[in-house]
Specification:
Oligomer: heterodimer
CATH topology of the largest domain in chain B: MetI-like fold
Structural class of chain B: mainly alpha
Strand content of chain B: under 5%
Strand order of the largest sheet of chain B: 1-2
Strand order of the largest sheet of chain A: 2-1-3-12-6
Order of helices and strands of chain B: HEEHHHHHHHHHHH
Shape of chain A: globular
Number of strands of chain B: 2
Largest sheet of chain A: 5 strands, mixed
Number of strands of chain A: 16
Number of helices of chain B: 12
CATH class of one domain in chain A: Alpha Beta
Distance between the termini of chain A: 50 Å
Strand content of chain A: 5-15%
CATH class of the largest domain in chain B: Mainly Alpha
CATH architecture of one domain in chain A: 3-Layer(aba) Sandwich
Number of domains of chain B: 2
Helix content of chain A: 25-40%
CATH architecture of the largest domain in chain B: Orthogonal Bundle
Largest interface: A-B, 61 and 72 residues
Chain lengths: 509, 309
Amino acid sequence: MKKKLGWLSLLLGLMLAVTACSGNSGGNSTAGGTKESNSANSSGNKEKPYEVVYAFPAFSNVPADLQEVQEAINKISVEKINVKVKLLPISNSAFTNQINLMLSSGEKLDMFAMLGNYSNQVAKGALYPIGDIMEENAQGTIDALGVDYYNATKVGGVSYGVPSLRDLAQDFGIVVRKDVVEKHNINLDNVKTFDDFEQIFKVVKENEPGMAGAANLTNGSILSTYGIQDPLGNNFGVLLNHGLDDLKVVNLFASEEYKQIVTKIREWYLAGYLAKDAATSPESNNVMVKTGKAAGWLSAMKPGFETQESRNVGLEMVAARTQTPVAMTDTVTNVAIGVAANSEQPAKALQFLNLMYTDKDIVNLIDWGIEGKHYVKVEGSDNVIKYPDGVTSDNVGYKSDGWMHGNQFLSYVFEGDDPEVYVKMNEFNQSASKSKALGFTFNGDSVKAEIAACNAVLDQYRRAIESGVLDLDKSLPEFLKKLDDAGINKIITEKQKQLDEWAANNTSN
Amino acid sequence: MRQLSYNVKNKKFKYLPLYLLMIPGLIYLLINNYLPMFGMFIAFKNINFTKGIFGSDWVGFQNFKYLFQTSDAFIITRNTILYNAAFIILGTIFAIAFAILLNEIKKKVLSRFYQSVIVLPHLISFVVIGYLAYAGLSLETGFMNKTILPFLGIDPISWYTEPKYWPFILTIIHLWKSIGFNCIIFLASIISIDTEYYEAATLDGASKWAQIRSITIPLITPVIVMLTLLGIGRIFYSDFGLFYQVPMNAGFISDTTSVIDTYVYKGLMVSGDMGMASAAGVYQSIVGFILVLGANLIVRKVSKDNALF
């Protein structure tokens, strides 16, 4: 219980006499104990290198060789900009909480990565307005991102963070097991719209007993990432058709388009195309597919998505795409890095950030570790790597999530992936259509009570409705009524107001 | 005069070791329970890290608003209080019953064995219990739907979408998990009852039932009252693990499974707003504080000896 209560218990434990959960505090920190380990190392008569503490979410244990990689990075960075870095991975489940605590207690923190809560952190004043000093310290980052995508993180005209350079746009569709597709001669080329998924589901239902057409995403619904909207930060008030048409903020859940989609899902559910317990099953989509309980799932995608998921599932997957790539503020700021508001030397932090976008050696040290020890180059190629002999993904001493740390396009490609994947991804980013609201970030501070209340309503209804288990005639109006009560219209009004103001200041777009 | 001052000094000196022993406990209490109370002011602030915690703007009761924003406000308050009331009443009754039964087992080995078996669930994490419940209640593979209900000739039930069953499921699971621990407390106080009372009662020909009613229960009443009062003080808090893990976070049954803690968690999980989170905590502790005072007042009116303070 204590673990799950997470930030709540931590905060209450700090603040309240009666809460018994205080045993939790401090237990989650993964801060390594290395302070000033090689401060005497700096060369010659230079001033002492400034240490940049970089915190980021981690999805597995702290790598055993983190220290070693860090020292290798420092060797380059001290020479180039006289800055050292301290890598601080924090377990993802505790990340937001830990950052809150570090900021409020004044613990040293210079830079941190954000997954999906960029606008929240801006609203809370957690970030330093780096836009003011970006040009003189990190022009290379702006060049690498391109002005459009760099501008997408601006709030009130100033940038508070930069997106990591990865897939900045999304397309949408379905991934299906290749063996199933081939066995039953499913023609994926015919799948062009949402309704077309039915062709796949029907074949699967008729030929593969016990296999659902599509699985829910882990702890979510079928539509968790497959969407038709520009969510404008939080899905309360969205632009339909990914914001390609106009800037009119509407209630997604009350829209005709949404109703059509969930009605279709309900039909599929009743026809037996979907898992009966989809709304509550705790199993992940990967496991569902791997164990033959589902043929695939709907998802937001990117170039190379099939390869990535084939590896995650352990079976070869193929994809059919039903929507063309589109870039929205949310797809850009989804993964962003910012400088902490209480950083002592934001300029130094930015200079290091700049290396993460421009220096191939630094990028590959952070992403893959040390050459010869954690990876070796595949013979005859200087861009494709593999594990050294005797090393596997289970026992390698250093692992990391390259899509989070700066410029992934400078990163080596792992054997098995398309060697051109980052070139293709870059093209994908450049060619994607752009939402009319790309660059608009909603500040929900004035309606945060309503947002909290709406989140609770969403949590109650969304998964069940988008899994098809509920009778829509009854549950959909109920859902909308509760959203109304929770104040969704107030959020929409506020969002429209901010969007109009933003558009007025960006007439050049 | 001299005599008196000597006495006072002597007394002080006499109890000094005891005071010293008290210090670590007092310091712990001070740091852990009293110092954090100053943090209550965070509930009235709009925290902005750039301005710092003390420099952030005051916002009055703005942070409390979301707790009362929707029609759910009534539901979560009702659920929290009713569940906890049921837990206090049923939990006490069952725990005492088990304690008395255990006390009657004269074979020491067996008594220890049963005791361990009853306490065991208390040691299982709610995450595990959630999955145990899921193994029993799952729509397609659950023990209930596959074995028990067909045996009784009842159609399978989609447990995780039917709110009406959950008050029973959650109460049963809570009792299963918590009885063992409370049982030990009661058992300890039952064991400490002087056996002479029972011998005298047996000589007078009192039945077992009469002994329980007129000796055991009255003698452990102070313990019952104390535990109940403590329980009432926490009536506005709910066991997060029970209400979040066991229903597998299935949203649609939240009419009967949502309590204040899970509501706050769901509402704020995305934003992680410190001010609003502490507003919920302040609300819960103030209501709990009032309830303890009130309940104690009533107990003192009825029987002064049993009151806590």
